[in-house]
Amino acid sequence: MVTCFLRYVVDPYKLDDFETYGRMWIRLVKKFGGDHHGYFMPSEGTNNVALAMFTFPSFAEYERYREASMHDAECQEAWALAERTRCIVSWERSFFRPVFSANRA
């Protein structure tokens, strides 16, 4: 299992556009077999950082999703929205593996 953690620097004047973008990707990650844990929008404090996390059963499955998304019309539409609105200033992507309690089956 691998979880992708995304940290976005967003334009604080375009949060509605970014939220629309995020809602699109939640469904798209699920479409390709991932489990999306949501987008987390700025609230109190920093007004230009948003986060997202989603999980795939393996890094290989994540790579298949990345390849398939490059050719998917809905994914292209989501990327076009971000490009057109310029709601994303920059982003960082990291990968993590979960650790569960010893009692977890």
Descriptive account of the structure:
The chain has 105 residues and is of the alpha+beta class. The protein has one domain: 2-Layer Sandwich (Alpha-Beta Plaits), CATH 3.30.70.100. Helix content is 39%, strand content 30%. The protein is built from 3 helices and 4 strands, in the order E-H-E-E-H-H-E. Strands 2-3-1-4 form a 4-stranded antiparallel β-sheet. Strand 2 and strand 3 form a beta hairpin. Helix 1 runs antiparallel to helix 3. It is globular. The mean pLDDT is 94.
Features:
105 residues; Alpha-Beta Plaits; 4-stranded antiparallel beta sheet; 3 helices; NIPSNAP family protein
Mean pLDDT figure: 94
Rg from Cα:
15 Å
Rounded to the nearest angstrom, the distance between the terminal CA atoms is 15 Å
For the record, what CATH class applies? Alpha Beta
CATH architecture: 2-Layer Sandwich
Spatial strand arrangement across the major sheet: 2-3-1-4
CATH topology: Alpha-Beta Plaits
List how many beta strands DSSP finds.
Answer: 4
Protein name: NIPSNAP family protein
Domain NIPSNAP: 7-99
InterPro entries: Dimeric_a/b-barrel, NIPSNAP
